[in-house]
């Protein structure tokens, strides 16, 4: 038996962004970038580990919007186009750098090989079905896939209309079963947002465990004996694991985290902003510069301005990823040995991260994980990777404690999603939820058109509730888009509500247009709001 | 960026670019509702120190008041947010400025449960209620003074039916509210765990706070 366990959790999520009404849409790039830099590279790492007999364990959320996008024909076709363009651009970069920037020649070749490899894995190995790739690793018993809120709605702020919380959980659970062929055992509460009492909705669909920020356990009542290093069960019968801050900081910290190492790739210096527009015009169809994913520089130094960044050396970065994996493992060994002495049982160190941190933000992150799992498997037996359900079967005896409201946002509560930049959305989200409940109760036997309109109203509400919109408004990234999404979904919901309550006619053409645009959850049943 | 952790800022890299030229989106044909014409008020818990109240007012309610009181009396009346503690009593009135649609209310360290009423304070001082909110409970902060003793197996947890879970959670909530508040100092030797958040009371107003609005004291 190992001295202790390490439970890595990658939370993979993007909001549902799909715009058939435009030939190309900038925010769809979020998904394409994450596929190219995170999701496919992670699948490649897992494939390698499985092939080489490395006994890894990983837990991943695949959020319902992400799974929906991964299985959407339009987005898949657009991603093929995106990948082909990337490969072509990298090919041209080989030519260009040969004459004009020979110091980047090797890197241009690297990108060309990398994009072709990603394309081959996505298109040829998995037939454009990345959900199937993750399912393969789940079926091998190495990967535990958990679900999330249906559209990553921030549940604590939905509490005034309990049916809205219930629908986020129920729709997600049904979606999971449809795509993964069985019930989910665990759920990632969006933004780790927990409010006491929400366990009931999880119980209703057979969910059994979730995760909290550290103070969810350290502030629980009564006080858990093992801090954050053993799960607890709430009086409502849901098991909660909590985040270990030490292992989190090693990766997340802007000051001391691994991704800030000077040899790693610089995120912000991209040829999309460096090359003349004439070299990029086919890749920038609307003429606006954007990140493309070809970056030739390394972090270089703390505070180094973008103009002074030095060339990226892939071999140095790989060497550093291996050293960081060794350092991370040594720290986990020391940590579990220290904890085991006071626990009398093997401690579990839970390390949740946004999946997109690995690869998209920290380009070398997937290789770090690869090295780490291999070292953990071959070099020692002090700490073993584990999934939550596996740990619970090994150590089913749990203390009963009630966690307080908590989230993983700044300061640990709801301020990131409720502040002067985004508070205006809550009266509308709340009213729409209340009206959805009213519609669900009013319509016992709807006509076929009413049935479709009711289900579409549910989709519009769910899409408006994505916590991403409030987060973007606070972090000041694509704010106009986040506002547009909130307003559009609320406005469409409002039209459907007025139609269904006899205040205006329901135009079949408009309903069809809504269904085609906002086509998430084709199986949704509005009665979930009763 | 204020109000964001390192992680929040890194997470924001999923949603770039930050600087965009103004874009013209396809015009949305459906109007965004600015108001819903109902008397209603809701509370949300933001953190242990702040709750958020938002409301809507039915225009007909004000018209009726104007009829019964007269235009002048109505003009001298103020829309008022009354925050009450339904467990241990006490209330605090916030006279709202014209046009306010929501308010951040500072919580009181000595209490946890809040409900709000939206109403009109007449020139006579009389309060006419228009709507009543949901009840919210703010989270406890800091480690509990009591050590966990009760245990449950993973299997038993799985077998707990939703209705039994709801009943158990309700019992827990009542016991929690009946218990004395605790502080980190009152705990039997437990040090505050490293890296825990939200412990430092933020002095003054938050970035969202509307000066002059919130009340720190309850009237009994």
CATH topology of the domain at 39-143 in chain B: Immunoglobulin-like
Q: For the largest interface in this structure, which chains are involved and how many residues does each contribute?
A: A-B, 106 and 91 residues
Distance between the termini of chain A: 48 Å
Provide the CATH top-level class of the domain at 39-143 in chain B: Mainly Beta
Question: Structural class per helix/strand content of chain A?
Answer: alpha/beta
Q: Could you outline the blueprint of secondary structure elements for this entry?
A:
The complex is a heterodimer of chains A (530) and B (220).
Chain A: E1 4-12, H1 28-51, E2 58-62, H2 64-70, H3 73-100, H4 105-125, H5 130-139, E3 143-148, H6 162-180, E4 187-188, H7 199-204, E5 209-212, H8 214-218, E6 232-233, E7 239-242, H9 245-252, H10 271-274, H11 277-280, H12 314-343, E8 348-354, H13 365-378, E9 383-385, H14 388-394, E10 397-400, H15 425-442, H16 448-464, H17 467-475, H18 479-500, H19 508-517
Parallel strand pairs in A: 1-2, 1-8, 1-9, 2-3, 3-4, 5-7, 6-10
Antiparallel strand pairs in A: 6-7
Chain B: H1 6-11, E1 40-47, E2 50-56, H2 59-69, H3 71-76, E3 78-84, E4 91-95, E5 102-106, E6 113-121, E7 127-137, E8 151-153, H4 154-159, H5 162-178
Antiparallel strand pairs in B: 1-2, 2-5, 3-4, 3-6, 6-7
Summarize the structure in words.
The complex is a heterodimer of chains A (530) and B (220). Chain A has 530 residues and is of the alpha/beta class. Chain A has 2 domains: 4-71 and 129-265 and 312-411, Alpha-Beta Barrel (7-stranded beta/alpha barrel); 418-529, Families 57/38 glycoside transferase, middle domain (immunoglobulin/albumin-binding domain-like), CATH 1.20.1430. Chain A is built from 19 helices and 10 strands. In chain A, helix 12 crosses helix 13. The radius of gyration of chain A is 24 Å and the shape is globular. Chain A starts with a strand and ends in a 13-residue tail after the last helix. Chain B is an alpha+beta fold. Chain B has a domain at 39-143: Immunoglobulins (Immunoglobulin-like, Sandwich), CATH 2.60.40. Helix content of chain B is 21%, strand content 25%. Chain B has 5 helices and 8 strands, in the order αββααββββββαα. Chain B has helices at residues 6-11, 59-69, 71-76, 154-159, 162-178; strands at residues 40-47, 50-56, 78-84, 91-95, 102-106, 113-121, 127-137, 151-153. In chain B, the strands form 2 sheets. A 4-stranded antiparallel β-sheet of chain B has the order 4-3-6-7. In chain B, strands 1-2-5 form a 3-stranded antiparallel β-sheet, with no helix packed on it. The two termini of chain B are 40 Å apart. Classes of the chains: A alpha/beta (530), B alpha+beta (220). At the A-B interface, helix 7, helix 8, strand 6, helix 9 and strand 10 of A face helix 1, strand 1, strand 2, strand 7 and strand 8 of B. Strand 10 of chain A pairs antiparallel with strand 8 of chain B.
């Amino acid at each position: 038996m190992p001295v202790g366990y390490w439970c890595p959790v990658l939370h993979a999520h993007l909001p549902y962004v799909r715009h058939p009404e435009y030939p190309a849409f900038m925010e769809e790039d979020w998904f394409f970038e994450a596929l190219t830099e995170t999701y496919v590279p992670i699948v490649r790492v897992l494939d390698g580990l499985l092939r080489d007999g490395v006994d890894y364990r990983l837990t991943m959320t695949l959020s319902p919007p992400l799974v929906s996008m991964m299985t959407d024909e339009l987005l898949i076709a657009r991603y093929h186009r995106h990948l082909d363009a990337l490969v072509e651009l990298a090919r041209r970069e080989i030519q260009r750098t040969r004459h004009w920037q020979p110091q980047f020649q090797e890197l241009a070749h690297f990108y060309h090989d990398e994009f072709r490899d990603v394309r081959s894995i996505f298109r040829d190995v998995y037939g454009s079905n990345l959900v199937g790739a993750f399912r393969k690793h789940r079926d091998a018993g190495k990967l535990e896939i958990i679900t999330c809120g249906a559209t990553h709605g921030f549940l604590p702020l939905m509490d005034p209309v309990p049916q809205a919380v219930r629908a986020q959980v129920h729709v997600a659970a049904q979606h999971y079963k449809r795509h993964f062929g069985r019930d989910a055992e665990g759920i990632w509460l969006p933004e780790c947002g927990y409010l006491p009492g929400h366990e009931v909705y999880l119980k209703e669909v057979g969910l059994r465990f979730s995760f909290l920020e550290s103070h969810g356990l350290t502030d629980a009542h009564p006080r858990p004996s093992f801090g954050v290093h053993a799960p607890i069960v709430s009086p409502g019968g849901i098991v909660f694991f909590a985040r270990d801050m030490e292992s989190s900081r090693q990766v997340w910290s802007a000051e001391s985290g691994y991704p800030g190492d000077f040899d790693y790739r610089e995120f912000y210096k991209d040829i999309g902003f460096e090359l003349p527009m004439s070299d990029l015009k086919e890749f920038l169809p609307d003429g606006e510069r954007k990140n493309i994913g070809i970056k030739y520089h390394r972090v270089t130094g703390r505070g180094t301005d973008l103009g002074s960044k030095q060339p990226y050396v892939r071999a140095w970065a790989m060497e550093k990823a291996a050293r960081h994996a060794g350092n991370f493992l040594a720290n986990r060994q020391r940590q579990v040995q220290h904890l085991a002495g006071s626990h009398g049982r093997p401690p579990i160190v839970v390390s949740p991260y946004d999946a997109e941190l690995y690869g998209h933000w920290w380009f070398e992150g997937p290789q770090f994980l690869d090295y780490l799992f291999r070292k953990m498997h071959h070099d020692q037996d002090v700490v073993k990777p584990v999934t939550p359900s596996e740990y619970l079967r090994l150590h089913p005896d749990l203390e009963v404690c009630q966690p307080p409201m908590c989230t993983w946002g700044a300061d640990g509560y709801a301020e990131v999603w409720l502040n002067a930049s985004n508070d205006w959305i809550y009266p509308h989200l709340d009213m729409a939820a209340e009206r959805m409940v009213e519609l669900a109760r009013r319509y016992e036997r709807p006509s076929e058109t009413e049935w479709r309109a009711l289900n579409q109203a549910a989709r519009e509400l769910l899409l408006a509730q994505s916590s991403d919109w409030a987060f973007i408004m606070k972090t000041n990234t694509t704010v106009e888009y986040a506002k547009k999404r909130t307003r559009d979904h609320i406005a469409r919901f409002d039209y459907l509500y007025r139609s269904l309550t006899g205040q205006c006619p329901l135009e079949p053409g408009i309903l069809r247009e809504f269904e085609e645009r906002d086509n998430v959850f084709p199986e949704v049943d509005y009665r979930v709001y009763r | 960026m204020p109000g964001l952790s390192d992680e929040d800022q890194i997470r924001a890299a999923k949603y770039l670019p930050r600087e965009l030229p103004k874009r013209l989106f396809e015009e949305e044909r459906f109007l965004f509702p600015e108001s819903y014409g109902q008397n209603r008020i809701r509370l949300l818990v933001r953190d242990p120190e702040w709750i958020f109240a938002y409301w809507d007012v039915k225009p007909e309610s004000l018209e009726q008041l104007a009829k019964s009181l007269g235009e002048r009396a109505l003009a001298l009346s103020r829309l008022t947010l009354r925050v009450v503690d339904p467990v241990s009593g006490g209330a605090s009135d916030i006279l709202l400025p014209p046009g306010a649609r929501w308010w951040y209310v500072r919580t009181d360290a000595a209490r946890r449960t809040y409900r709000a009423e939206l109403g009109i304070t007449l020139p006579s001082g009389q309060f006419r209620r228009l709507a009543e909110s949901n009840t919210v409970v703010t989270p406890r902060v800091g480690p509990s003074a009591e050590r966990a003793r009760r245990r449950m197996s993973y299997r038993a947890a799985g077998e707990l039916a939703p209705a039994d879970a709801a009943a158990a959670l309700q019992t827990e909530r009542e016991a929690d509210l009946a218990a004395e508040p605790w502080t980190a100092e009152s705990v039997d030797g437990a040090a505050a765990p490293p890296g825990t958040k939200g412990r430092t009371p933020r002095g003054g107003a938050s970035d969202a706070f509307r000066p002059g609005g919130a009340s720190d004291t309850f009237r009994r």
